[in-house]
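Minutes, project check-in
Item: structure for the 259-residue chain
Input as provided by the requester:
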Amino acid sequence: MDLGIAGRKAIICASSKGLGKACAMELAREGVDVIINGRTAETVETTAQEIRDATGIDVKTVACDVTTEQGREKLLAACPAPDILINNAGGPPPGNFRDWDGDTWHNAVEANMVTPILLIKAVVDGMIDRKFGRIVNITSGAVKAPIPILGLSNGARSGLTGFVAGLAREIAANNVTCNNLLPGPFETDRLTSTLQAAAKKNGTTLEQEWANRQATNPSKRFGKPDEFGAACAFLCSNRAGFITGQNWLLDGGAYPGTF
């Protein structure tokens, strides 16, 4: 399927690895000029070269922390008028809410709610003027089914979800869409570190935790990052202009609800 976005420009936040990288790769395969981002310059450049080799796209790199004002300014300077914006940032740490002070909450909200909103604010009017824009926020399956130890993520990402629900309806008439992708368990470094922590706590091995976690999913496996990237690319396409304000859950069927 031709997604009709070759030649478009995309900013993909936190895209040096994991699901962000998968989104950048799939968009580049569709001929999109991608600007990728990460905190470590060496890692970002390694990923950029991998995407160049696979797609022939001349990838731009921006090494910065996108959750800071300086980082956002640097990223937008590299691409002030993107057609596509993929918001992404590492989730806050797990824990017990009784242990979190105000600064901990502020940091979580800044990274996973305020940062994407400020980036949307910076680019959405240009998208409206050009009559094309695709905004995709990578949030979490916890928005649909909160996970007790991820209270910081539950709260911050749910706040972003509420904001997007209103914004998406305001901008839809201009061929600008705004949607959320909600990943369940995908084969990423974050999942590995989570399962390693579980293994340490339970006195098991990573392999045992990996197998146990897979067994609880209806699909009996974890998601592949390229599956996630393909869903993102479709939402960014000309084919998806009538999809907006939605929360796409990619979790292998783990969420048990009807709605």
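Outcome recorded: Strands lie at 9-12, 33-38, 60-63, 84-87, 133-138, 176-183, 247-250.
No further action items on this chain.
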